[in-house]
Amino acid sequence: MIKKLFLLAALTFTALCGQAQSWLIGPFSKHNAANPVLSPLGTTTFDCPVRGENVHWEAKDVFNPAAVVRNGKIHLLYRAEDTVGKHNGTSRIGLAISSDGLNFKRMPTPIFYPDNDAMKKYEWEGGVEDPRVVETADGQYVMTYTSYDGEKARLCVATSPDLLSWKKHGRVFSNFIKGGGTDFWSKSGSIVCRRVGSKLIATQINGKYWMYWGDQQQLFIAVSDDLIHWYPFTKPDKSLKAVAEFRPGHFDYRVLEPGPPALITPKGIVLIYNGMNDAKRGDTTLPEGTYAAGQFLFSDREPDRLLDRSKSYFMKPDQPYEINGQVNQVTFVESLVPFKGRWWLYYGTADSKIAVASAPLR
């Protein structure tokens, strides 16, 4: 199943490193001439219902977006930070729309944000972070996101018929007991999907929906009947069962974190993920703390069974806006959509801006 290919030439626009494997999505090329496609904006304001005042809601940083193709256009749901909230600014989610994947028109106010609702205790004042969006067979949108109160990150879920009006459903693991309670650190939910035209549709396997999640040295998996209530795989002692782990000597030694929604392909489930480097025990050629991107291949019959993983990263920081910013040395991939014959991969750069790479759709 795996075949060796020649190493790609080190061109300006290439983001692929190492040897390719036949199941990998790519190769991806960064659109350096257009990047970054979204940057902070200091002119837009929002009447924050919690703070009770007008804030420049996307003035500090914009990064880590979800993407959806709707009505023939790419809709980018992006994390935006203001300059006044504690914990490096309060995060809200904005919406920008593009007909070519490179030039975006923004909505003037956020479409998802902390409010005076039941989720306020989890979302204030850190905010709502890092969305990932999939569709259901009946046309609904399901968004996993991180709520952050300044101390603990919690993976949550919301749904929408149109990407504009959202219903918050709370923490995804609210019914799961871990260590004597339901309230534990969790992030980055990547729901398994199948491509249907330009849509990524959440797909059941063995009668369940599946989601990869986590931001530690291990990667975890959970199942659901309804895309709202999720239950992690556990060991006999009820501790979390890992489906992948860090690798000494590699770029993903410190952290494994899911990227875009996982994709069912003819070879299995491909999960593009983010790895954080340890310069001493990981990849010694990369700076400390570098976030680079790799790919996993899981079984499409047993989604918790790892079949293969990329031998190295396929994208790393190499542009000034990827190397320097709120957090240096970061390319954080989070959304992948099929559009006009290509895969479009949007990613956060240095936790400050948004850029895009693309690859042939095959």
Automatic annotation (TrEMBL):
<feature type="signal peptide">
    <location>
        <begin position="1"/>
        <end position="20"/>
    </location>
</feature>
<keyword id="KW-0328">Glycosyltransferase</keyword>
<dbReference type="Pfam" id="PF04041">
    <property type="entry name" value="Glyco_hydro_130"/>
</dbReference>
<dbReference type="InterPro" id="IPR007184">
    <property type="entry name" value="Mannoside_phosphorylase"/>
</dbReference>
<dbReference type="GO" id="GO:0016757">
    <property type="term" value="F:glycosyltransferase activity"/>
</dbReference>
<keyword id="KW-0326">Glycosidase</keyword>
<dbReference type="GO" id="GO:0016798">
    <property type="term" value="F:hydrolase activity, acting on glycosyl bonds"/>
</dbReference>
<keyword id="KW-0732">Signal</keyword>
<comment type="similarity">
    <text>Belongs to the glycosyl hydrolase 130 family.</text>
</comment>
<keyword id="KW-0808">Transferase</keyword>
<keyword id="KW-0378">Hydrolase</keyword>
<dbReference type="InterPro" id="IPR023296">
    <property type="entry name" value="Glyco_hydro_beta-prop_sf"/>
</dbReference>
<protein>
    <submittedName>
        <fullName>Glycosidase</fullName>
    </submittedName>
</protein>
